[in-house]
Request: fold
Amino acid sequence: MEIFMQLAKELSLKEEQVRKTVELIDEGCTIPFIARYRKEVTGSLDDTVLRALEERLTYLRNLQKRKDEVAKAITDLGLMTDEIFAALEEAQILTEVEDIYRPFKPKRKTRASVAREKGLAPLAQLLLEQDPGTDPEKEAAAYIHEEKGVLSVEEALQGAQDILAEDISDNAEYRKEIRHLTSRFGSLLCKQAKEEDSVYANYYDFSSPLKDLPGHRILAINRGEKEEFLKVSVEISKDLPLNYLFSQVVKDHRTPSAKIVIRALIDGYDRLIAPSVEREIRTELFEKASEGAIALFSENLKNLLMSAPLKGKTVLGLDPGYRTGCKLAVVDPTGKVLDTAVIYPTKPREDIPGSARIVRRLIDRYHVDVVAIGNGTASKESEIFISDTIRDYGGRVKYAMVSEAGASVYSASKLAADEFPDFDVTQRSAVSIARRLQDPLAELVKIDPKSIGVGQYQHDM
Reply:
């Protein structure tokens, strides 16, 4: 099959490898199962390659399905030609298929459709031919028809121009080239949408070539636009797309008809092509940025979850804070909570002597080996306090900074409430911080991955 050949070429695999792997996927085998138990069938393809193959297979099958649907729709209309069929076969992405189908797709009422209903399509075709001997106004006069709503030569010519503009916009080759030009030479512009400071201030007057935009900026800009802090647009020197259209559509600019054709192509670009291409390009940028963000999130999450556990150690978890104090929880090597407390070594109380006595009492009573300090609010002051407090132990007791991302989410969850019904949310956070140091995997799996804080914009996916 052609899909097997294409996958083999794109992924640098043997066609037989692809065929056998696809058979396994079609049988319902999961990627982890194939990677682990069917190495002899796939030629030892790893999970990364298998996942890429599955994703690309799905896309190509959807592409072929859409090609078949479009071909049937055009055939049912009685408008299929060898050229259209060949163009569909050559289309490599869904956007190209939709461009081919665009002229045949049922449309809502447009200026061009209204003009066609008034019988102005032949006039538009005549003007497009740009015959030097054609007098547009004289020809348009023949289309004045009060019952159809064409009351003047100007209205007839405007209707014909609207038809030409839509026909130019619906041309798949024109759209493909303009999309390419815009992607290559266009820029993304951001402006401030409202007089208000925000985290998006860096983008209040921002411009960057589309081809140079990193994924994290695309996602940040999209979020800023969604939150109505930014106005975003794709800009390109209009000379590039208009010169291209001129070269394709205008036969002789000196003819009387050419003036109308030129106005039509400018209108078609400004009103129809440019907004559509902008949407398509921004969608493509977002999809690529999302793929990159998800890949980064996946890698970071894997590294975090697979961090080595701290075995056989009793840990004192400390959730830093100011006004409400720092919450403590002592956890034994099995993760069992032995004791909890609250201290106030930070502002506004700054009861350092009293706080130190409580910490030393817990260390001595439960033979604490390590103090795990959450890295959130007041973490710096808490680190200094703990460092000073454990100095007398001569290095027997150590401390470590622990990411507390998602701790608040976990502490207020039903799972945490079921596990510690008698603890308030702050005490649960201290327990979670201690356990994260002991066994990151066992503790972090309790939290929604989006809240763990190892990605960029996973909440937008």
Notes: The radius of gyration is 33 Å.
